[in-house]
Amino acid sequence: MLQNSLKKFFDSKTELPINGLFTPAGSGYSPKINYKTDNKEQPCIAKQFIKNRMDNLSKYKHNTKKLDENSVFWDLILDYYFRLEMTGWEHLPDKASMLVGIHSGTWLTMDAWTLCAQWRRIFNKKRILNATAHDVLMSLPMLGKYFRSVGVIPANRKSVTKAFAKGHDVVIWPGGEVDAMRSWSKRDKVILGGRTGFIRQAIRSGVSIVPVATIGGTETVFVLSECRKIAKMLNLKKHLRCEIFPLVLGFPFGVTFEVLPMHIPLPAKIRTKILEPIKIDNDPDKENDNDYVMKKYREIENCIQEGVNHLASKRKFPIYN
Q1: Most confident residue range from 21-25, 70-74, 171-175
Q2: Closest by alpha carbon to 134, among 119, 147, 121?
Q3: What is the DSSP-derived secondary structure letter of residue 296?
Q4: Any idea which architecture 62-312 has in CATH?
């Protein structure tokens, strides 16, 4: 019954009164959804809602004051809740680079958040790091606005190119949802999802790639199953760019399907290490050289996996240590 209800929602083409339902009352924002009456495929509600939200939130910019306002909160989170250990700062190049790693914890990837928060503590706005996030997260009410205010950008070519042009560092998690929502049995497995776009982006932007290894994020919530068959049945890849519909065990709702952020992360110890940079040939022709791109992809994937294995060897007990 749940599966059928969700499928009807994602496949629905009925217009919703968005103003007042998804936006603050009196905001005056009333996006129009014009569905054509011909036999062409019409947009679904979920996909159209995300697009409208992304367009509406694009006006919100990075606000360093917002980071200052939250500094005490993040200091407590880093030092006492997740007990963050982050090393390898000496490996960062002097100029802007692309950090590439894995993240976990379904929608609330605390290994990613702690990396960004610690970066700010180390550089104190002297070197800006832009994190990247899935369109679904960037479109959520309140959360999407907050993401943009603290420097998170959409995980797309236009946004990343613009960040590098400003001289900012950018951190990318190529595996996206298949990485962040990987099951407990894959907690120490590096999953980049076979996605090589980040390497082509590094070639275009003329930056080196800095691999980042981390563990602990998978222990902030337990993914019991990825439920790929259900995700396929709901056509989530088309509607939400998501191939997984995670069944999780977390606080406070226990066992549940997590289609949106619903859990409070457990206080797992997070260990992160910045690894030695990997030089990328900035010859424009290399962007279309599939052999070169795949060679670099495997090199980066293996490098991160070795780093994860090393960090995992220090773990004595899940969550606590």
Answers
A1: 171-175
A2: 147
A3: H
A4: 3-Layer(aba) Sandwich (3.40)
Beta-carbon contacts of 168 under 8 Å, excluding residues fewer than 6 positions away, are 96, 128, 129, 130
| Whole-angstrom distance, CA of residue 293 vs CA of residue 296 | 5
Residue 27 has what pLDDT? 37
Q: How confident is the model at residue 261 (pLDDT cuts 50, 70, 90)?
A: confident
Question: Considering the entire predicted model, what is its pTM?
Answer: 0.79
Enumerate the β-bridge partners of residue 153.
132
Task: Give the strand order in the sheet containing 169-172.
Answer: 85-87, 271-274, 209-215, 98-101, 169-172, 129-133, 153-154
Q: Which helix (H) or strand (E) holds 200?
A: helix 197-205
Rounded alpha-carbon distances, angstroms, from residue 255 to 6, 129, 180, 211, 221: 18, 35, 18, 33, 10
44 neighbors 13 (Cβ within 8 angstroms): yes
pLDDT higher than threshold 80 for residue 252: yes
* Cβ atoms 221, 266 nearer than 8 A: yes
Q: Which of 7-21, 223-237, 288-302 has the highest mean pLDDT?
A: 288-302
> Mean of the pLDDT values across residues 45-55?
52
Domains of the chain, residue spans: 2-54, 62-312
Instruction: Show the beta-strand stretches assigned E in the chain.
Output: 85-87, 98-101, 129-133, 153-154, 169-172, 209-215, 222-225, 247-250, 254-257, 271-274
**Closest C-alpha to 31, from 55, 58, 11:** 55
Token pair for residue 215? Answer: 């563990």
Contact yes or no for 177/105 (Cβ under 8 A):
no
